[in-house]
Amino acid sequence: MAAIAAVVSIGGRPAWTTRIARAALVLAAVAVLAWLLVLPLLAIFAETLRQGVAFYVAAIRQPDTLAAVRLTLTVAAIAVPLNLVFGLAAAWCMTHFQFRGKALLGALIDLPFSVSPVVAGMMLILVYGKYGWLGAWLEAHGWQVIFALPGLVLATVFVTLPFVARELIPLMQAQGSEQEEAALTLGAHGWQIFFRVTLPRVRWALLYGVLLCNARAMGEFGAVYVVSGHLRGITNTLPLQVDQLYEENFSAAFAVASLLALLTVVTLGIKRLLEWRHGGDMRAGY
């Protein structure tokens, strides 16, 4: 009882020792985050602008860098919608049906989390490369996957595959299927149920998953490094362009890296804006 009285005051409010401990823990957490996240981010922008705005603009406007930006946006524009469709379908199957192999499907969804991106790239080469399982057939039909855009898309889809599905599955499990079943008994068909019942209930989780998927797609390095061939201006994405510039032009590498950092900041800003404007709807959905 003496220990409890020392922690909690008579009025039910935390004692001063508890408040001090709580403040110390909060400050320690903020200090660690600032040291590991904020300080490196500020260092990138400081190094980027150290030689002036003119140098920064010139580094960004290099043809190879612009080609890397276009390629990164193209890969993300293909991979993210594919994972959006897959994530919705996988979450629907995992939460609305019972079937043999359900546990295996859940394990396969999580597989990219446990496989190194470099290993994922090697797997794609073994399947789609020139001497891979399908390489000869693809080459005979004039299709090039590895060291081309299709290989970059496949690698990006693989590493970002779980993000949308893993945002949706817990929410759909918590919501249950009662509303869909009620709509079915009232005569609604499948697409009506999906667009008018299911999708409005999961839209915020879906948007979170898409944001995370897009951020990872634009910043992926390991898998695309293996399957790209490092062809500057052709198969170099932004992370690969930063890696090559780091060996040649230190300041230019930081200038290009700042674009990826800006993408991270924009993604976080969109997430926080949605939470601020639609926080009530999000909490209601969950």
What does this structure look like?
Part of the ABC transporter complex CysAWTP (TC 3.A.1.6.1) involved in sulfate/thiosulfate import. Probably responsible for the translocation of the substrate across the membrane. By secondary structure, the protein is mainly alpha-helical. It is 80% helix and 0% strand. It has 14 helices and no strands. It has helices at 2-7, 16-48, 53-60, 63-96, 102-114, 117-128, 135-140, 149-160, 162-175, 178-185, 190-219, 222-228, 238-248, 250-285. Helix 13 runs antiparallel to helix 14 (250-285). It is globular and about 65 Å long.
What's this entry about, in short?
The chain is an all-alpha fold and 286 residues long. The protein is 80% helix and 0% strand.
Cα Rg? 24 Å
**Strands, count:** 0
Describe the sheet with the most strands: none
Mean pLDDT: 86
Question: How far apart are the first and last residues' alpha carbons, in Å?
Answer: 39 Å
Low-confidence stretches: 1-11
Described by the principal axes of the CA atoms, the overall outline is globular
Tally of helical runs: 14
Helix content: over 70%
Structural class: mainly alpha
Strand content: under 5%
The helix/strand series, from N terminus to C terminus, equals: HHHHHHHHHHHHHH
InterPro entries: CysW_permease, MetI-like, MetI-like_sf, Sulph_transpt2
Keywords: Membrane, Sulfate transport, Transmembrane, Transmembrane helix, Transport
Subunit structure: The complex is composed of two ATP-binding proteins (CysA), two transmembrane proteins (CysT and CysW) and a solute-binding protein (CysP).
Transmembrane segments: 23-46, 66-92, 104-129, 141-165, 205-230, 250-270
